[in-house]
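Next comes a single protein record:
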Amino acid sequence: MAHPSDGTVLITIPHPLGGADQQVAVSNAGAEQLASRLRKVAKERRKWAKKENVACYRVYDADLPEYAAAVDVYLCMEDLEDDQGNPLPVSALTPEQTLERTYVHVAEYQAPRSIDPQKAADRFDDLMACIPAVMGVPQDRVFAKVRKRDRGGSQYAENRTPYEFMTTEDGLRFIVDMNGYLDTGLFLDHRSTRISVGKLAKGRRFLNLFSYTGSATVHAAAGGARATVTVDLSSTYLDWAKRNMKLNGFTGKNHVYQKADTLTWLDKAIAAELKFDLIFVDPPTFSNSKSMGNASWDVQRDHVKLLDRVTKLLAPGGVAVFSCNLRTFKPAVEELEAKGIRIKDVSRGTIPHDFERNPKIHYCFTVARI
């Protein structure tokens, strides 16, 4: 470790594939421990991802609390197909090819009020300086979502021009955007949940509520769902869902997309006596979007009325999969049972390996009428 005269610290970071070491200038010597942690986990995750054919995964989630961010890897899998036109598996890539197709997405967490904003900014800058060297990628393939400093760190900076490419999950194709929005279009912690939905979907009528970019619908269609309905309030996300479905060859009148507020749509669907065999519902933790008027949404406060409506759409023997990301969430079991609703916690089986360090990343339940 060197100490240049300008006050920065030089740390040495080995190349992930055995190339030349790189010296990186950081503001704090603690970044050496950060780089070591990133290297260790990234090495383990690359081996795991190759074995399990996982193209997008988490390598860091505030493992060192003072460096508060999430770091995810996305492999660009465009123009990679086998002889049958199916996406090439990650296991078929050489280490050099994997590195050439690696992109990194970094999302900063809000620092506690007790932390000096400048100190938090310096630490995030050190993280961003270490990542290209540790991961072996150029700086222009690292995309950061940084919180604004001028309003107490409560907002993310507006993001820029979209940067899209195609990646894969369980043999399916998905469009991700590394730069245009806060999230990329694929919630990685729900990977196992989506795969489970696909396994449940064969021959079933599938409904996806708060659908985002429709990734669960893609899995359901691939699993053999006989019809799908995808509901979201955002035209942008519904269009994205259609693109994801088309990318996987799922088009036609059996796949319907509805732009609507979910609770309003549910009331209309109940009145129309629509029925589904499998429903996936992954609501936001909180929302007070302008399109909701004077209303607001809080998953803890409002999940009973949501699940009451959802289960009224279930056909006999049908099941809903309900997930949420509120880390303090507690289902109102007795209140739900009073309404004739059974809820079962299946969270443990839905946390992927790359999120095991923080098992409260989400909760997941199966829900049905008693």
